[in-house]
Structures are given as structure tokens and as C-alpha cells.
Amino acid sequence: MRLTIIFMAVCFMLVCGTAFADMMPAKSFTERQPKTHNANPWGLVYAGAITENVPGKVNIHPISYQLNGITIAANVYTPAGYDPSKKYPAVTVAHPNGGVKEQVAGLFAQKLAEAGYIAIAADAAYQGESGGLPRHTDIPFFRTEDIHGMVDILTVYPGVDANRIGMLGICGGGGYTLNAAKSEKRVKSVATLSMFNTGRVRREGYMSSQIRDIQERLTQASLARGENFAAGTVDFDALTDESINAITNDLYREGMKYYGKTHRHPNSTFEYTRYSLTELMQWDATDNIKLINVPLLMMAGSTADSLYMSEDAIEKATGTNDKELFLIQGAFHIQTYYVPEYVEQEINKLKEFFGRTL
Questions:
Q1: The whole model's pTM is what?
Q2: What pLDDT sits at residue 9?
């Protein structure tokens, strides 16, 4: 935990005026000047990332738009030979907890564009390049709204066939994608990768390791909210060196390598506001999951210690008969994000799934 006093608001410049902007529906979204921290012009950190927009090939378009009064930063990937006068199927891609659009969400959005889809990956409100204060707020309502907002943008994006929109959510973004899909009837199919039920884990602990102190942690979160309100401060929960050294499960141990070393991005953090727990701990991605009545594909590593969450969700998703739990043999949770042989299997499965359902 660390105590941070929030004095500054984050502003994002909206840039337009190019030929591409002229094609965009008025007041829906605008081109955005990307911020970069590395040699990639869009700050992408995954292997095989686009390094330049070349006519006739897969291109990336940074945009921003307003959602509930917050500026959302997103990247839209368009297929090779993209023609805005034509119609393409499209997919939303929701990033993991603590992740940003430049990591695994961007990788899968790019791969989907290579397969002929228009794909959007957006930073969650309060996170990444998106606006919102306090930073790192992680509340289910907003994370779910982020996904509805991506659908909004796809319905007006040049070239998108609004009757062929699907969803993909990764890790925590998978849980929130399931939640959005319960009521989002503009989409025709839903997929998740290594789904992480944030509410269940914040409530019970990972692999049910904190069930005994639920009330104590809820009390701490409630007190933090009151103290923060009175003092104008924000309490954060974060992994410390001590907690990192005590990690025994595959998800968090490999997550530290992925987010801290191999795919590090300055906007990506494990921090979240402590008072977020007051909302997270009473929420569950599988509540009313039977409302999902479209084809559902859930992918997970066969050896991932997070697999139990996908197994639980797919069993409870009784509103659709078109559902499948697809196992990536030998893969741990984080490995499904980037290991080439696993990503290839996942993309092939997504191409088959979305090809059939969109």
C-alpha cells in the first residue's frame, strides 16, 4: 500500500483534421496523437507489432472518444486492403487487469485484423492513456461500460458491419466481457482467453486463499473510502517485494515477469484503489450469466491454475447451447498471452469461431 495525494488532472489532446478524420462520424470519435515510450511509434510492446502504417497492409488508427464524461484512448486495427466503403466483421478486445492496450490486447487485435476483422483495443477508464481520477480505479461498472463503449464505436466506425460484431476479453477483461455480454445484444458472439473473475478473486482470494478474512478486508476498504474522502487522498493496494517473493501460483509469478520485464509498459500497473474492493467484492462475473444467449467460446491453458474460473463460468452459462471450453494443452495462464505456439492455436480457434458466428 502507498498513500498518494491526487492534485493533478490528466488531460488528453484530441487531434483531427486529416483525411482519415474526414471519414469519421461527427462527434463520435477523433484521431489521437499516440504517446510512446519506446522505438515503436504507438508504444506497442508485443512481438511482431506494427511499426508503420503501410497502404494495403494491416494498419493501426489511434482514436479517442467520450464515455460517461471520460476520455477513452483506443487503437483500431484495420485489415489489409481496408476500404471504408466496404463492410467488415469487427471485434472488441478487452485487456487484462493492470494491462494496457499496447500489450496482449493489442497483439490479439492485430492478429484479428490480419484475419480480416476490424478490431478495437481500448484502455479502461481510469487506466492507461484513458482519463479518469483517481487513477487505477477498478470498479466493475466502469470496466463493463468500457466494453459497451467499444461496441458503440464499432457501430459507427467506417467499414464495420454493425450486424457482425463480436467480443473478446482477456484475463480480467474476459470477466468484464462476460458481464457486458449479459445485456449487450448488439453482439453476435463472445470469446474469452484465460478468463479471470475479478470479483470472485478479490472476495475469496486467488484459489480461495482469503475466504476467512472477507469481512476484515471489506471493513478496511470501507474505512479507506471514508478516510480518502475526508483527507483528499487515495489508498492503493499493490504488490510489494515481500508479497512478490511469497508468490507460489503460476498466474502471479509469471505475471510479474510478463508485466515487469518481457512486456513492460509504463502505463501498466498492478495497483488499484483500495476502496475499489467495496464494489469488486460484492460482484461476480458469473451472476446472471445465463443471460448470455449467443455463441460462447472460452479458451484457457490446460495447466493454468486459473482454469477453475473458466470451468465454473462455462458450466453456469446455461442461456446458450452453443458454447465450448477450448484448452490450450500445456499452457499456464500468462503463457497464453504471448508464447507463439499457444497464440497461433488461439487465433486459429478464434478465426474458426468468429468465422462461423459473425
A1: 0.87
A2: 33
